[in-house]
Amino acid sequence: MASRGKTETEILEKNLYSQLDRLIDQLKDIEESKDDMSDEEYTEQKQETLEQLKELNASVAKFKEGNLSLVDQMNAIQLAIQAAVSNAFQTPEVIQMFAKKEKPQLHQRLADLDERIKLGQVADMKSALRQKLEILYALQKLGEKLTDDQNHFLVSNSNTTMKEFEIASINISTGLLNVAGNQIQEAKN
Asked: Does the keyword Secreted apply (predicted)?
């Protein structure tokens, strides 16, 4: 009987990740097709996708309230959704790697990006630097130790959107502590 709850939790987690992946891919497709759409069409499609992400975020919050064993995975999904919705991260692939806690892939993407920048193979330097900032921020949020140079880059290039994401992640952590506290209190009663 105990394995039944575990299996259901795994299925739920898999479904949530699938839905998150689908929405991130949809954002990626919208960004890639931006030049082929009118401004109004682009804005409408992006807003619809962001609205779906917000709905997914609300569902994840409800799941977290009821089951502490889901909190860690739901927290990762919710942070990724918050990153996408707040526009802190504009690179869908980075959002996906962040949501799935793919630290090695993030490190590799950062190394590849640094190499392309060093060799002058980057067409849009502003976009490349924003992506580097996103990767470093994701790694930091996943508990990775950054080098002094990376920390300096992060601090000196952090923008208001990243700060908004930081506030959102603090709010999620506070919610996590509240859920844990409530469940401990219920167990005592």
From this structure: no
Q: Write the CA distances from 27 to 9, 34, 69, 99, 186, integer angstroms.
A: 27, 10, 30, 15, 41
Phi, psi values for residue 122, rounded to 5°: -105, 125
Q: What does residue 115 show for φ and ψ, rounded to 5 degrees?
A: -65, -45
Amino acid sitting at position 155: V
Q: By the 8 A CB rule, do 79 and 57 touch?
A: no
Helix axes 92-99, 2-32, angle to 10 degrees: 170
- Chain mean position to CA 102: 11
Give dist(CA 14, CA 17) in Å, integer: 5
| Distance between start and end Cα atoms, the chain | 25
* Whole-number Å distance between alpha carbons of 130 and 90: 8
Q: pLDDT by residue (tens digit) across 111-154?
A: 999 999 999 898 888 888 888 988 898 898 888 999 999 999 88
Q: 């190394």: which residue's tokens? A: 111
* CA–centroid distance for 92 within its chain: 9
Q: Where are the domains of the chain?
A: 2-188
Nearest to 75 by CA among 163, 2, 187, 171: 171
Contact assessment for residue 70 and residue 12, using Cβ atoms and an 8 Å cutoff: yes
Q: Is the pTM of this model over 0.90?
A: no
